[in-house]
Write a structure and sequence with these properties.
Blueprint lengths: L1 H14 L1 H37 L1 H27 L6 H76 L4 H80 L2 E17 L2 E17 H6 L6 H20 L14 H26 L1 H29 L1
Antiparallel strand pairs: 1-2
Helix pairs in contact: 1-5, 2-4, 2-5, 3-4, 3-5, 4-5, 4-8, 4-9, 5-7, 5-8, 5-9
């Protein structure tokens, strides 16, 4: 008799493989659903970060324009003040340095302008997809809860059946749960295959999002680098403008003169008499004096030079041409950002839109799982009755 019972138990244990396989496959699917839900939530948060931080690209664009203009102004001013002998050579050398420094700035500004053309459409796309991501998250949470409920129900039924003594009823219950498992498992596996493909798509989207997020965060560092250069340029430009203003300043010096003649009538006759002095003045701009070639005698030139130095030397002492512009290594970020933004829609936004289009798959499997739960619950109840 014990041999017969052993054979029945072995048969039951063997046939329970269908239900146990289903338990394994559903657990795996639930794990993938949970991962997909977490990944979607992460992408959603990252998209919001990118949407907010992409406003920095406009700031960078403005700052690059300001820097480009400042460099142009400094180069022009250096050209103007290079006529001054004391600083001519130094001014010319610095002008060449700034001209060379300006070339990559011009290139970066061109790239930044291109970035700005795609930023607005991308931010618009992100804002459109954000409500869809929330919808996806809600569906995945609902499905994940249903999968967990199914796992609990199936596990309860399996445990209950295993706890029954060997009998015809137990064999029937095993056959029932195996039949259900055989019907359910292919559905679960097919869904999980589709889910894994979606996971792979979201993984690619996440990778692209991470690239953009990293690059956008790098814009903050780029802004600091630009500010550091402007902190050096602005005082230089201010001092150069002071020198330029002095160059247009008019120097007026007196040199000699002649008596002023007045007239009076004496006995009806107009008689001249000295009544003062007419001073002769020479007037030239500082620039004219520096350039030379003035038709004045030596003593007058000495007076002009003395008066000129009185106004010129103070601004020259305040002028520091021995400057060093900090480097801007962050400019390379703009090229990377420009390239990645162009593929961002295809690699990040489109997969999320595609996931929305797949929502019916998740809704269908949710409905299927609900139906499977009901079937397994019937078997579980039948088993529970046998235990009483």
């Amino acid at each position: 008799m014990s041999t017969v019972n052993s054979q029945i138990t072995d048969a039951v244990t063997t046939s329970m493989n269908e239900a146990n396989k289903l338990m394994h496959d559903v657990s795996t699917t639930e794990g993938n659903t949970a991962k997909l839900e977490a990944d979607v939530k992460t992408v959603s948060q990252d998209l919001q970060t990118i949407d907010n931080d992409l406003t920095m690209s406009k700031t960078i664009n403005t700052k690059l324009k300001d820097l480009d203009s400042a460099l142009s102004e400094a180069v022009e001013l250096l050209e103007v003040v290079s006529i001054i002998p004391e600083i001519g050579t130094e001014a010319s050398e610095l002008k060449n340095v700034l001209s060379t420094f300006k070339k990559p700035i011009d290139e970066a500004l061109d790239v930044s302008n291109k970035v700005e053309k795609v930023v607005a459409p991308i931010r618009n796309a992100i804002e459109k997809v954000e409500p869809k991501v929330k919808q996806i998250d809600e569906v995945l949470l609902k499905l994940m809860n249903a999968e967990n409920q199914f796992i609990a129900t199936l596990g309860g039924a399996i445990n209950c059946i295993n706890s029954l003594p060997s009998s015809t009823v137990k064999t029937e219950l095993v056959n029932e749960i195996d039949t259900v498992a055989g019907k359910v498992d292919p559905v679960v596996l097919t869904f999980d295959d589709a889910q894994i493909k979606i996971l792979n798509g979201i993984a690619e989207a996440t990778e692209e999002v991470e690239k953009i997020k990293h690059l956008v965060m790098g814009l903050v560092s780029l802004e600091n680098q630009i500010n550091a250069v402007m902190n050096v340029l602005n005082p230089l430009i201010s001092a150069l403008n002071s020198v330029k203003n002095v160059l247009s300043h008019t120097i007026r010096v007196p040199y000699g003169g002649y008596p002023k003649v007045c007239y009076k009538h004496v006995l009806g006759v107009k008689v001249p008499y000295p009544c003062g002095w007419h001073t002769v003045y020479f007037s030239f701009s500082v620039e004219q004096i520096i350039k030379g070639g003035l038709s004045v005698i030596g003593p007058v030139m000495d007076l002009l030079n003395k008066a000129m130095n009185a106004v010129l030397q103070p601004v020259l002492r305040a002028l520091n041409l021995n400057i060093h512009l900090p480097s801007i290594p962050g400019l390379s970020i703009l090229n990377d950002l420009s390239e990645d933004l162009n593929s961002f829609i295809m690699k990040a936004i489109d997969p999320i839109n595609n996931l929305v289009n797949e929502l019916n798959v998740f809704e269908n499997i949710y409905n299927d799982v609900e139906g499977f739960i009901a079937e397994v619950e019937k078997i579980n109840k039948a088993c529970t009755v046998q235990l009483k």
